[in-house]
UniProtKB/TrEMBL annotation:
Lineage of source species: Eukaryota, Viridiplantae, Streptophyta, Embryophyta, Tracheophyta
PROSITE patterns linked: ATPASE_E1_E2
Domain P-type ATPase N-terminal: 48-115
The UniProt record lists the keyword Cytoplasm: no
UniProt name for this protein: Phospholipid-transporting ATPase
Alphabetical list of Pfam families matching this protein: Cation_ATPase, PhoLip_ATPase_C, PhoLip_ATPase_N
CC terms in the record's Gene Ontology section: plasma membrane
Coiled coil (residue ranges): none
Domain P-type ATPase C-terminal per the UniProt entry, residue ranges: 846-1062
Localization annotation: Membrane
Residues of the active site: D430 (4-aspartylphosphate intermediate)
Family as reported in the entry's similarity comment: Belongs to the cation transport ATPase (P-type) (TC 3.A.3) family. Type IV subfamily.
Transmembrane feature ranges: 94-127, 309-331, 362-384, 854-872, 928-952, 964-984, 996-1014, 1034-1052
Length: 1127
């Protein structure tokens, strides 16, 4: 890359304006420096040799490379780890054992018939896992192969891949590029080493952060200056804390302290700065953002875990009937075999030795375990895997989840947990980019006690009318505050001349756009001045005005206000202040409160509408007063010591007094389309919603109002750490005690509340969260949070998001869903039970699997008992192989993919239907045992009815009775008909695909037996359909009778349930079928109003609360009117 890159000297020295002081060295004797924190001790051992990366590639340093990996597997670990994942499933473990035993003489089937299905099922699942992990690998490669300028020596920078960076490398990052590692900022294109950073991937915030270099490295202003650069950094070891950093920088035999303002974190982006130089401190997985990440977990859904439990039950049944079979076989061998002269073996063996019946019984136990193995559905897992893959495909193709603005479709990155979304109890959502669009709109304003606008266009119209009619005394200061009280930088498009603004806060950008519409356009900033164009309505002219910047007192979460002190062309000194209304109102002069009542009323209205509000004020300063204050301010600004911030706060507070209120602003942190409606529906569906955001508390609360998580009248419980002057250990103890008291008071408040409609909101910041997530407090916090209608966690780090999610998941014991949009949300999404999914019918699907396998497997047991526990199967090996894999698999897959009890549009109108999932109505033990009982009943009917029919009946023209092959084929035909008819009865929504799969499966059986019967390998089944069963009316009559006998009880059950004890969706299905939703709108609306959970959050809850408030007022007025009439 080029050797240039000189600094833009015409840019600003922001250190002249900001109150921060960062350009001072700290000697060893400076108690405020990091030397006091124990550098070199435990946790502070890292040593970085700047511009000498070779030292870090070998011991004793040998730091991690910058390569990152978020995959679950690699080439070496894929096979063993994927195999382990597959055999965590107990059914697969069982079938592995039977596949091994199939190689021994005790197996009643061929080895191929046992090994092939297992290899198919496991192989397919491993391929799916491999494909999904390959996608993660490709994403990692894209990141690792990004390029950045790296100093290779002699003042020359070359582009190198991120993954090749080493600790100690000097890098040059250009505008709009991401930082490749955690860096120490050395210098920037600005003269005083300032740069702007966007940290959206770290904390979700889009407003720009100001970072600054040490003064000693400002001379490193171009590529050539790094030719002989050397320095040593001693700092903390890798850790996940995004907001702290302890270290010092040794340069030219001087020691300088490093704080977080000099650190540029990986995955944040350089904005509004041409370039920066930095030295790499932490690389790869040592970087703070990667320290906040968690390993890709191997998640298993609750349904899958419950399936394992059911399989344990079936396995217990399998062992039980196998024991019965082996005991029966041993008894028959001992007592009856010696008398069966026609069954005497030619040579004695261990499998059927009358002299050792116990040993023969043990061998037969193994045979029985394999023979009855069809009780365990081997195709269950692979069928569900296929259903999930197809569901993921439909998610990706869903037109309702298509973003028209970006052209992006939904992307289901993994399909392992699709069914879990139908059972979600708690949603944990990020705010920025998830609930909001990161776009601020100036919607309303209060100027001199008059409120304007309900939309941005109306604000402009009202402003134009006001300017046309002539401005009053307070209109001009209002516009000037909007145009001048900020730190934004104007960017002029050279082609169009349009001005855009790069601002630290998105609010400032909205204010500047509004000021431009009001006639005050901010267009230029120099080192010491700001310039605006003032439009004159009367003369239609434009005047350019210059204001000299004297001081800037920046906004922070503690001050909750921002002040700028300016001097205009007439040498008048003006102080403009904007901030939270509670802060501004406390600082108003007696003659500055004229508009306070009206403005306060407007602010309450704006807040109730979910808008972000600020109060605007000003004062005119006398020259002598300003000179005296500025002297004190400069002393505080240049002070050295731990009380510097307190001094600055005290001096700032001195001048921010006697203010005159001019009005207020109301901006909307624009919500994503449909967010309030979505939250309302989710609340009506009975879901709990937590918001986890990196934003400050005030911003999060405003968004809570905007999306109806908060509302007027809701009691807020705020948990925060009080500030104090205690030393570190005392402060920690005091903080914990204070938080425990706050939690106890909040819990008591909730318990003592007598109003059943009262709602509580819990709001907590990141510092407090760090304490309440500790073992001795987390359950107290969770118990309080559960009692609250909504929970908002502010200023949380990615690691804290994951820890909160884990606490909710483990503490509540219900399904959690995490939603986020940035890298800072990855840990939360990974920790939650699910990230994305669809509501499916896997419960019904799984119950059906157990039903059909019990119905099929028990007939084998009955026949074996009927045949003297001989270990003989009534079915051909090929019948058993195809039963789960081909003949009954496709209908159940279509059930999982296409089934709809009601349409998606109806679901949105009846949100309470969602509770069928969390309440587990389709997969509770009552339903599971019911389906198992149905399978037991069907097996009895299929076996004994067929035995009774064919026992002594002639089925061929020559008078021959049925042999084992004919009876077995007939029984198998009845099973195929019965189980496919059963799944047809369970379906509520038929498509042509379901018809093809259900009736096609039955047709496939007939085609198979026809083709199989023509081959010599069919042995006893040779031409069995053409010559034996097909011509026999008894075969067709038995099939019809047995199928009807198996399914009529289920038909009676569902008819009774729909008539006498219907579920919610049954009622809606009937209403739709009878077209009552069209013909009887009154009934339809009544049913819709009943079909929502009572909730205390969401737009509906706000409306209900407002109605209750109005009724309360009317009731109070009612008695008064009555008394007046009587008197």
């Amino acid at each position: 890359m080029g050797r240039g890159g000189g600094r833009r000297r015409d840019r600003l020295r922001w250190s002249k304006l900001y109150t921060f002081s960062c350009f001072r060295p700290h000697g060893a004797d400076d108690g405020a420096g990091p030397s006091a924190t124990g550098l070199g001790g435990p946790g502070f051992t890292r040593v970085v040799h700047c511009n000498n990366p070779a030292l870090h590639r070998r011991k004793p340093l040998k730091y991690m490379l910058n390569h990152i990996s978020t995959t679950k597997y690699n080439i070496i670990t894929f096979f063993p780890k994927a195999i382990f994942e597959q055999f965590r499933r107990v059914a697969n473990l069982y079938f592995l054992l039977t596949a091994i035993l199939s190689l021994t003489p005790v197996c009643p089937f061929s080895a191929v018939s046992m090994i092939a299905p297992l290899a198919f099922v496991v192989g397919l699942s491993m391929i799916k896992e491999g494909i999904e992990d390959w996608r993660r690998f490709i994403q990692d490669m894209k990141v690792n192969n990004r390029k950045v300028g790296v100093h290779r020596g002699d003042g020359e920078f070359v582009y190198r891949h991120w993954e090749d960076l080493c600790v100690g490398d000097v890098v040059k990052v250009e505008k709009d590029q991401f930082f490749p590692a955690d860096l120490l900022l050395l210098s920037s294109s600005y003269e005083d080493g300032i740069c702007y950073v966007e940290t959206m991937n770290l904390d979700g915030e889009t407003n720009l952060k100001v970072k600054r270099s040490l003064e000693v490295t400002l001379a490193l202003e171009d590529d050539e200056s790094f030719k002989d650069f050397r320095g040593v950094i001693r700092c903390e070891d890798p850790n996940p804390s995004l907001y702290t950093f302890v270290g010092n920088f040794e340069y030219e035999r001087q020691m300088y302290s490093i704080d977080p303002f000099q650190i540029l974190l990986r995955d944040s982006k350089l904005r509004n700065t041409a370039f920066i130089y930095g030295v790499v401190i932490f690389t790869g997985h040592d970087s703070k953002v990667m320290q906040n990440s968690t390993e890709s977990p191997s998640k298993r859904s609750r349904i899958e875990k419950k399936m394992d439990l059911i399989i344990y039950i079936l396995f217990t049944v399998l062992v039980l009937i196998s024991l019965i079979s082996s005991i029966g076989f041993a008894v028959r061998i001992k007592l009856d075999l010696p008398h069966w002269w026609y069954l005497q073996p030619q040579s004695s063996n261990k499998l059927d030795d009358p002299s050792r019946p116990a040993l023969s019984g043990i061998f037969h136990l193994i045979t029985a375990l394999i023979l009855y193995g069809y009780l365990i559905p081997i195709s269950l897992y692979v069928s569900i895997e296929l259903v999930k893959v197809l569901q993921a495909h439909f998610i990706n193709q869903d037109i309702h989840m298509f973003d028209e603005e970006t052209g992006n479709t939904a992307q289901a990155r993994t399909s392992n947990l699709n069914e879990e979304l139908g059972q979600v109890h708690t949603i944990l959502s990020d705010k920025t980019g998830t609930l909001t669009c990161n776009q601020m709109d100036f919607l309303k304003c209060s100027v001199a006690g008059v409120s304007y606008g309900v939309g941005s266009s109306e604000v402009e119209i009202a402003a134009a009318k006001q300017m046309a009619s002539g401005a009053d005394d307070h209109d001009i200061p209002y516009k000037m505050i909007l145009a001048l009280c900020h730190t934004a930088i104007p960017e002029i498009n050279e082609e169009t001349g349009a001005i855009t603004y790069e601002a630290e806060s998105p609010d400032e950008g909205a204010f500047l756009v509004a000021a431009r519409e009001f006639g005050f356009e901010f267009f230029k900033r120099t080192q010491s001045s700001v310039f605006v164009r003032e439009k004159h309505t009367s003369s239609k002219g434009v005047t350019e005005r210059e204001f000299k910047i004297l001081n800037l007192l920046e906004f922070n979460s503690k001050r909750k206000r921002m002040t700028v002190i300016l001097k205009d062309e007439d040498d008048q000194i003006l102080l403009f202040c904007k901030g939270a209304d509670s802060i501004i109102f406390d600082r108003l002069a007696k003659n500055g409160r004229v508009y306070e009542p009206d403005t306060n009323r407007h602010l309450n209205e704006y807040g109730e509408a979910g808008l972000r509000t600020l109060a605007l004020s000003y004062r005119v300063l006398e020259e002598s007063e300003y000179a005296s204050w500025n002297s004190e301010f400069l002393k505080a600004k240049t002070a050295i010591g731990p009380d510097r911030e307190l001094q600055l706060e005290r001096v700032s507070d001195m001048i921010e007094r006697e203010l005159i209120l001019v009005g207020a602003t109301a901006v909307e942190d624009k919500l994503q389309k449909g967010v309030p409606q979505c939250i309302d529906r989710l609340a009506q569906a009975g879901l709990k919603i937590w918001v986890l955001t990196g934003d400050k508390m005030e911003t999060a609360i405003n968004i809570g109002y905007a999306c109806s998580l908060l509302r007027q009248g809701m009691k807020q419980i705020c948990l925060s750490i009080p500030t104090g002057d205690q030393v570190a250990q005392d402060a920690r103890k005091a903080a914990k005690e204070s938080l425990m008291l706050q939690i106890a008071n909040g819990s008591q408040m909730v318990k003592l509340e007598k109003d059943p409609d009262a709602a509580f909101a819990l709001i907590i910041d990141g510092k407090a969260l760090a304490f309440v997530l500790e073992d001795d407090m987390k359950h107290m916090f969770l118990n309080l949070a559960i009692e609250c209608a909504s929970v908002i966690c502010c200023r949380v780090s990615p690691k804290q998001k994951a820890l909160v999610t884990r606490l909710v998941k483990e503490g509540i014991g219900q399904t959690t869903l995490a939603i986020g949009d940035g890298a800072n949300d990855v840990g939360m999404i990974q920790e939650a039970d699910i990230g994305v999914g669809i509501s499916g019918v896997e419960g019904m699907q799984i119950c059906y699997f157990f039903y059909k396998n019990i119905a099929f497997g028990l007939t084998i047991f009955y026949f074996e008992a009927f045949a003297g526990f001989s270990g003989q199967s009534v079915y051909d090996d090929w019948f058993m192989l195809l039963f789960n894999v081909v003949l009954t698999s496709l209908p159940v897959i279509s059930l999982g993919v296409f089934e709809q009890d009601v349409s998606s549009e109806i679901c949105l109108q009846f949100p309470a239907l969602y509770q069928q999932g969390p309440k587990n109505l389709f997969f509770d033990w009552y339903r599971i045992l019911g389906w198992m009982g149905n399978g037991l009943y069907s097996s009895l009917i299929i076996f004994f009815l067929n035995i009774c029919i064919f026992y002594d009946q002639a089925i061929r023209a020559g008078g021959q009775t049925a042999d084992m092959a004919a009876v077995g084929t007939t029984m198998f035909t009845c099973i195929i008909w019965a189980v496919n008819m059963q799944i047809a009865l369970t379906m509520s929504h038929f498509t042509w695909i379901q018809h093809v799969f259900v009736w096609g499966s039955i047709a496939t059986w007939y085609l198979f037996i026809l083709a199989y019967g023509m081959t010599l390998k069919s042995r006893d089944n040779y031409k069995i359909l053409l010559e034996v069963l097909g011509p026999a009316p008894l075969y067709w009559a038995a099939t019809l009778l047995v199928t009807a006998a198996c399914n009529i009880p289920y038909l009676i059950h569902i008819s009774y349930q729909r008539s006498c004890n219907p579920l919610d969706h049954h009622v809606i299905q009937e209403i739709k079928y009878l077209r009552k939703d069209v013909e009887d709108q009154t009934m339809w609306k009544r049913e819709r109003s009943k079909a929502r959970q009572k909730t205390k959050i969401g737009f509906t809850a706000r409306v209900d609360a407002k109605i209750k408030q109005i009724r309360g007022k009317l009731q109070k007025k009612g008695p008064a009117l009555t008394i007046h009439t009587v008197s």
